[in-house]
Every structure is written in structure tokens, then in C-alpha cells.
Amino acid sequence: MKAVAIDLDSTALTNDGKFSDHLKRTIETLHENGTLVFIATGRSMKSLKTKIPEDLPVDGFVAASGVVVMADGKTLRNSTFKKETVEEVISIARDQHVYYEINTTNDGPFTFKEDKEYSLEDLLHPPEEDVLAYETIGANRSIKDSNQWVDTVDLEDVIKLYFFSNSKDKINKFYKTLDNNSEKNTKYALYQTAAHNSEIMVPGVDKATGLKVLSKYFNIELSDIHVFGDSMNDIPMFKVAGKSIAMKNAINELKLLSDDITEHTNDDDGLARYIEAHYL
């Protein structure tokens, strides 16, 4: 093993979105021992930087599920949606009154002011039992953040759209609509990383293609990379990595693809404890 690629939400992060000091120390030791550290997440670069320690040693980033790939402060790849695809999906969200967030290459999230009224109705609705803590935190942030609600966005620079509802029935109906409209994921790549959200990424890129870019840049093989994850958007990198480790709290589909499963969940420092037991 020459590198590890680590997902963030529900893998490195607790359910309330925290990155533990224990995990930070563990990754620092792993890096000091000569292992490259990659972050592979569905979050944009702007968003992920708010979730990891500022001085965490990270050699490469696969952001927005492979849409943006960075190393040594350089952008190695950046892909964006077709403008008409973004417009079409936002129109579907409006029709079904589903809250959405637009992320551009270097900024976001944004939501159009004209959709604020129906969005707030959902965000302020009492959450169902299985809404994750970080989703509630994000909803509360959006309610208070005046900079998120805008009149215009450059729709030719969009890398990701995120959708959320406190109602599982609403988000599931919306997900099915997007799935039927995706033209077998050729129009956009569709993911669901928790029961109450959905997100679309640029088609043709994912965490696996992102790791391929990093492996070429660092002159290593994909078989040299061990990956950690928990959800649907981790499936591509689990299929190409040298070893794949699913979190105890991962979806069953990912566990079936994995080479190993952590003994503990993300809320119990499962990642740090696995790295210590198997790599240090």
C-alpha cells in the first residue's frame, strides 16, 4: 500500500459532521510513515475544507465525486454540467417543491431566491427520525445564510447539485423522477448518500476516475491505493482499488463489494481504530 483514499461524510466524519482529534493524529502518523493521503468525497472543495483540520496532511483531493481533482495546489481535472441539464433538474425540483443547493467550481452552495418560500417550508418542518445530524445542521445553516439565496448563478460552472427533504417520501419520489430522467446516468450521475438526500454529479466522472488521475500524477498503481467509504458514491472506487474497506455503518451494497469492514462505526472512531490496528 502506498496511499489511502478516505471518504468524509459517515466515514471520516461523525454523524454530526465532526473530524475527531484521534483520527487527525492517526492520519498524521500514517502520513509520517510514508503513506500518501487522499480525500475522496462528494463535497465540493469549498465544502470539504470546512470539515477537515486546516493542517491535516493531504496529498490529493477527489472532490464532488471526481468532478474536481487536485494535488499540490493544482487542479488536475475540472468538469462542469451542461447549462441545459442544470436548468432542467432545477425545474423538476421546483415542480416537486424539493430544496436544492447549487455548487460551482469554487463556490456555493447557492439557491435561487424565487424558491426560498417553499424551501423554508421543508427545512423548517420537523425532521423525521432518520434525518442525520449533519443534515439538520446543514438545513439550519441554509436558513440563516443570506449569502446562499441569490438571484443569479453561472449555470455553465456548476459541478454538483444537492437535494434534501425532511420527508423521506418526498425525496424518494424526487429521486425516482431523476433516475427515470437520467438516460441511464448519461445526462448526470445520480447518488443518494443518506435516506433524506440526493445529489447529481457530472456524468462520466466519479471517485474511481478521480483516483486514476491521482495515481498517474503520483506515479502509483490503483492497486497501491486502499479506500474507505460508506455509501453509494464510493462504489466506483471500491471496484478499482487494491483494497476496499467499508465502514460498519455502510450500506449493504458497499459491504458486499468490500474486502473488509471496520469493527466500529463512524460515530465510534471506526476509521481511526481500523488504521491503527491494520497499518500502524
From TrEMBL:
Question: GO cellular-component terms in the record?
Answer: cytosol
Protein name, entry field: Cof-type HAD-IIB family hydrolase
- Tell me which domain of life the UniProt entry assigns to the organism this sequence originates from: Bacteria
Gene3D superfamilies referenced in this protein's UniProt entry, alphabetically: 3.30.1240.10, HAD superfamily/HAD-like (3.40.50.1000)
InterPro entries associated with the record: Cof, HAD-like_sf, HAD-SF_hydro_IIB, HAD_sf
Please report the organism this UniProt entry assigns to the protein: Nosocomiicoccus ampullae
Q: Name one GO molecular function term.
A: magnesium ion binding
* PANTHER family linked: 5-AMINO-6-(5-PHOSPHO-D-RIBITYLAMINO)URACIL PHOSPHATASE YCSE, PHOSPHOSERINE PHOSPHATASE
